[in-house]
Amino acid sequence: WTVEESHGDQGSGLIKAREVTMKVPVPPAPLAPRQTRLTTTFCISVIKSDGEISVTIQASSVSHDIPFGDRFLVQERTELSAAKDTSGIKVRKHGRCVFLKSCGLLQSRIQAGAASNLTKSGEHLATLLQRRARAERMQVDRTPRTPAHATFTVHVWELQRRTTIWSSAWHPPFLPHDGRKRWRWVDTTYQRHPWTTATCREESSKSSLPPVEPQQGWTPLVEWTVSPDSAMDCDAEGWQYAIDFYRDDQFWGNDKTGLHCRRRLWSRSFEDTMGGLRVTPNDALLVSRTVSDPLQALVAAMEPGSCDTCVWRK
Asked: How far is residue 173's CA from residue 197's CA, in Å, rounded to a whole number?
């Protein structure tokens, strides 16, 4: 991180900047690869003024492997501040597509696609903040755990396919092109989860719960449950339906009519009871702190000594 303190008319604060390189999936599109390298520059600022805190997160991203990806930037700005007369926070999100060079006839399509993705990410952020706030309220009456312990939540997709669109029987994916999806229980990228305890595909596909157990030192906090984290519509049992196992949420819905595939998300939280900072199966360390305000949580994450992630590189 590049750290800088600021002092001005609007108050004092802390600014951190960092460049992150990662690989991300690409929605199905003509001439587009399945994934792309993405470089994002983040600038996070926390301003304290008159006893109130505001957080601003700015990001500028460039995709290296998609067509014309080096000719435009996708920029977004997220502002979080305390809502007046309430105990909540106000979230504002802005975004734009900046073209460094002309993309010809595709320019309008690129701009529309960027706007759509920014809208989805904004809705997802609002959902996560609302869910976090509800979870904090539910834990008020519980005995607090040691806040220094690292905690994280594992998400696992359960995948099933049926032989015909009229069949009522669902099976683990069985077609040759399903590949690793035939394990039935996969991570969020549809790959075999690194903590999978099943030794073969047959054993995994017969399990009624995710065959995923942590390494030594991680202790489950709850049992496996069908996760409400997906912002997409689900049926009463948590299933989403599509014509194939797409990774993009826009192809999934809660109506199974005429569709062969279905999925549902399972989740389970774990705690590092040995007190060491371990690498999670997603190669990231997530520290849970006991806070009642999401803004305070963001500020705590920027304090010296707060955890970092292994997949972020300077």
From this structure: 19
b/e burial code for range 10-47 (CB count within 10 A of at least 16 → b):
ebebbbeebebeeeeebeeeeeeeeebebebebbbbbb
Cβ atoms of 157 and 265 closer than 8 Å: yes
HSE value, Cβ hemisphere, 13 Å, CA-based, for 289: 15
CA separation, residue 6 to residues 3, 11, 17, 45, 59 (Å): 10, 8, 13, 9, 19
Q: For residue 35, what are the β-bridge partners?
A: 25
CB 283 within 8 Å of CB 121: no
Between CA 285 and CA 282 the distance in angstroms is 8
Residue with tokens 């587009």: 32
- Number of CB atoms found within 10 A of residue 90's CB: 12
Residues 288 and 227: their CA atoms lie apart, in Å, by 19
The pTM (predicted TM-score) of the whole model is 0.46
Per the listing, tokens 């957080």 go with 55
Residue-wise pLDDT tens for the chain (314 aa)?
555 666 666 566 788 888 888 888 887 777 788 889 999 999 998 888 777 888 899 999 999 988 888 899 999 999 888 877 666 778 888 889 999 999 888 888 888 888 888 888 888 887 877 777 766 665 554 555 444 567 778 889 999 999 998 999 999 999 998 988 999 999 888 888 888 888 898 998 899 999 988 877 788 888 999 976 555 678 888 899 999 998 888 888 889 999 999 999 999 888 877 655 444 454 333 333 333 344 444 444 444 433 333 333 33
Under 8 Å between Cβ of 268 and 223: yes
**Taking the alpha carbons of 174, 179, 183, 187 in that order, is the dihedral positive or negative?**
negative
